[in-house]
């Protein structure tokens, strides 16, 4: 199955992607995760991406499209994939379409997770991420049973620098201006599935699998 998981920052894309990719047995392609890995490793891509991410801006399309193109050409994507956080602009969506055509692939569905702004603010500012494995927690909604350590790998939990209140407000505005237009874009292609995302993690997963015809 070839799917895009869309939604504003904090909608629960990463959280749902973890579960869905296991359930559907497809690779998880998160541009945010790829950038954070590059930043941690100090590669040229990381140095460039950091300038934008720290202020809540989008990394330029040429850079982002390039890394996704490379990733989709890898053999494990042939049978399916889940794109999380890409595309985020109309030019990225057009580039994706071209790439998929070249690779003779076709998107099955675009899942749009819908959550209100006030809830997004609470989710983002309380988010904590594992330094070791990238697992996502929340100080109130999904605390680790091991305190400030990861339940899965024991790694240290930290707050992403772009999850500070000032940067979060910027990211939500960038979403409205540059990414929200993709809702109509995929609606027009008949691919869009809107999923209400303010219920529990388990309930949202159930609704997505049901909408995909997997339950
Ligand atoms: P995104 O990848 O869309 O930015 P995340 O999956 O990282 O979002 O989720 C943002 C924060 O909200 C995380 O701290 C996560 O634990 C929490 N969260 C995710 N889904 C839910 C949910 N259904 N209810 C409450 N909190 C959630
Ligand atoms: P979230 O879904 O919580 O906003 P992500 O991890 O998807 O977080 O993205 C973090 C940051 O990485 C974004 O604010 C942006 O700067 C950059 N980024 C991720 N994906 C893209 C993309 N498709 N295009 C441009 N920038 C991106
Ligand atoms: Zn961990």
Summarize the structure.
47% of the residues lie in helices and 15% in strands. The chain contains nine helices and eight strands. It has helices spanning 13-24, 31-41, 44-53, 61-72, 90-102, 117-125, 165-179, 181-188, 201-211; strands at 2-6, 28-30, 81-84, 109-114, 127-130, 136-138, 157-158, 192-196.
Secondary-structure blueprint of this entry?
Elements: E1 2-6, H1 13-24, E2 28-30, H2 31-41, H3 44-53, H4 61-72, E3 81-84, H5 90-102, E4 109-114, H6 117-125, E5 127-130, E6 136-138, E7 157-158, H7 165-179, H8 181-188, E8 192-196, H9 201-211
Parallel strand pairs: 1-3, 1-4, 2-3, 4-8
Antiparallel strand pairs: 5-6, 5-7
Helix pairs in contact: 1-9, 2-3, 4-5, 6-7
This protein binds adenosine-5'-diphosphate (2 copies) and zinc ion.
Residues 7, 9-15, 123, 126-127, 136-138, 141-142, 200-201, 204 line the site of one adenosine-5'-diphosphate.
Notes on the protein architecture:
- This protein is of the alpha/beta class.
- It has a domain at 2-26 and 79-115 and 174-211: Rossmann fold.
- It has helices spanning 13-24, 31-41, 44-53, 61-72, 90-102, 117-125, 165-179, 181-188, 201-211; strands spanning 2-6, 28-30, 81-84, 109-114, 127-130, 136-138, 157-158, 192-196.
- The strands form two sheets. Strands 2-3-1-4-8 form a five-stranded parallel sheet, with helices on both faces.
- The longest helix has 15 residues, at 165-179.
- The protein starts with a strand and ends with a helix.
- The model has no long low-confidence stretch (mean pLDDT 97).
- The protein binds adenosine-5'-diphosphate (ADP) (2 copies) and zinc ion (ZN).
- Residues 130, 132-133, 135, 150, 152-153, 155 line the site of zinc ion.
């Amino acid at each position: 199955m070839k799917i895009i998981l869309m939604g504003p920052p904090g909608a629960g894309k990463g959280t749902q992607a973890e579960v869905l990719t296991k359930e559907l047995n497809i690779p998880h392609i998160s541009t945010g995760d790829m950038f954070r890995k590059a930043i941690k490793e100090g590669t040229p891509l990381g140095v460039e991406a950091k300038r934008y991410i720290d202020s809540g801006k989008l990394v330029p399309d040429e850079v982002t499209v390039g890394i996704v193109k490379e990733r989709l050409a890898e053999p494990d994507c042939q049978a399916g994939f889940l794109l999380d956080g890409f595309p985020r602009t109309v030019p990225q969506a057009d580039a994706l379409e071209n790439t998929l055509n070249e690779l003779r692939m076709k998107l099955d569905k675009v899942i749009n997770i819908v959550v209100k702004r006030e809830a997004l603010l609470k989710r983002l500012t309380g988010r904590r991420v594992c330094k070791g494995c990238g697992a996502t927690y929340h100080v109130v909604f999904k605390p680790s049973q091991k305190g400030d350590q990861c339940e899965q790998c024991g790694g240290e939990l930290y707050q992403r620098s772009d999850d500070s209140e000032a940067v979060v407000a910027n990211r939500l505005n960038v979403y409205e201006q540059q990414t929200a237009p993709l809702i109509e874009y995929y609606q027009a292609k008949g691919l869009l599935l809107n999923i209400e995302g303010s219920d529990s993690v388990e309930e949202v997963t159930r609704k997505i699998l049901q909408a995909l015809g997997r339950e």
